[in-house]
Amino acid sequence: MKGHPVLDQLATAGVRLGIERIGSFLLELGEPHRVAPVVHVAGTNGKGSVCAFVTAALVAAGYRVGTTISPHLEEVNERVLIDGAPVDDPTLVEAIEAVDRARWEWARKAGISGIPLTYFEFLIAVAFWVFARRRVEVMVVEVGMGGRLDATNVVHPAVCAIPHIGLDHQAELGATIGLIAGEKAGILKRGVPAVIGGLPTEAREVFEAVALRLGVPLWKPGAHLRREQRRDGRWSFSTPAGGLAEVQLGLEGAHQGGNALVAYGALMLLRQQGFLLPDEAIRRGFSTAWIGGRLETVAPDLLVDGAHNEDGARALAAYLQGRARKSPRILLFGMGEGRDAAAVLRPLLPVVDEVVTTAGSHFKARDPMELASSLADLDVVLSAAGPIEDALPEVYAEAGETVVAGSLYLVGAVKALVRAGALRDVTRG
Fold this sequence. Notes:
CATH class of the largest domain: Alpha Beta
Mean pLDDT: 94
Shape: globular
Distance between the termini: 36 Å
CATH superfamily of the largest domain: Mur-like, catalytic domain
Helix content: 25-40%
């Protein structure tokens, strides 16, 4: 489902951090967020991949799993998953309409004026509504932004997982790694075990301090979590609760080893709480885990990746560095307003031959000419193209390899164009 009138109304309403509104509304809705144990996943990068690994392993073990992630690439259904698959349109429409009716009644009772709930708050409520009615046995919930004041922080998790902390959303979360870590550590709950990835020292120290204050058993790399990759690409993982070898990951990129390690730690903490998670189910889940827009090949020599911050760009650059280069390798680059485009692009310059700026239709997308102008000081062959529907066929025709990055919304637009046949008649040089 591409959209819905209710969602279209909410789409440009902006962001309002805080959990009081959504907490009050979910109480009115019957507390659907408390129907099952929750794995709560926060972080700057990697949280979608961790959600995919955890979900796939739980499903392989026989559990009925509700997963909510954001943003979606093409269809809203991608935000509400049952056993790893997007819910069908009729279910989603029913949920939207039920939540819509409930929010207006709640607002009337509470004396709330204006539009009750933001876009993100509304869709989180929709996800929980669906999960309650599908009687899921466990929920995997991805934080939208930050943690402490994110709408998902109304949950009472069984396990928390944080794979990565970096600079992103500084205007909302703070200008330093420490401040951002403090916001993301806000998902930790007293006594609830948590697992973190290889965080920067400043971020790790924040999590250690919060964990100590709240009595949180905290697993971290080195002390509790270890991973190793063999020459054939298979991984082994170990934790205080057990280890797993001969694991083939379903997601591309060496950085996914760190995400899988955090996911494995979260699953072992669930196992300690009584979840039946056989090694073979985890191994099978990790090998089939998938999430769109992350190092995804969508057509011959056309790679899309949602890298939209500096650390994400570094991971993409490392992946491209290890691939045979088909010249010219052209990067189609588009970003949203408020992001440091030069910081994102710099790590990619050594692994591409040319950069072409473009934009999707999302209202936050930067104008390609303005974006190119802001990057003019970088040492790269740079040009500005039109909207992505025009730029994609033009670049694909002349490139040996085309890479699309800078925005998950741009990646979603490219996937939709390819599926609609936009490249069907393109003759490549």
